Amino acid sequence: MNAVHTTFARRGLVRPRDGRLLGGVCAGLAQRSGIDPWAVRALFVTTLVVVPGSQVLIYPLLWVLMPEGDAVVAAAGVHHPAA
């Protein structure tokens, strides 16, 4: 699992400690994409309403796979872009 966390951290996909509502997945995707977290959350909810199903599986999967903020990033020696 550490290899997966390191890979995600190197690509800038981390769940930030600040600005999260549930698990920080949408906030992390927004931070990586450079857009507002509320836009990602709105897109997630909109797609959940329009095409129900897969998002319910994707969110928990990303919650497990995306490392949490500074702890894993610091341990891996990876520097991610500042928010």
Would you summarize the structure shown here?
The protein is mainly α and 83 residues long. The chain is 63% helix and 0% strand.
Summed up, the helix count is 5
Note the beta-strand portion: under 5%
Estimate the mean pLDDT confidence: 79
Could you tell me the radius of gyration in angstroms?
A: 13 Å
How helix-rich are the residues, as a percent range? Answer: 55-70%
Give the biggest sheet.
Answer: none
Query: Which structural category do the helix and sheet elements fall into?
Result: mainly alpha
Shape: globular
Distance between the termini: 25 Å
- How many structural domains can be distinguished in the coordinates? 1
Number of strand elements: 0
Low-confidence stretches: none
Element string (H = helix, E = strand) = HHHHH
List the helices and strands and how they pair.
Elements lengths: L1 H9 L14 H9 L3 H14 L3 H12 L3 H8 L7
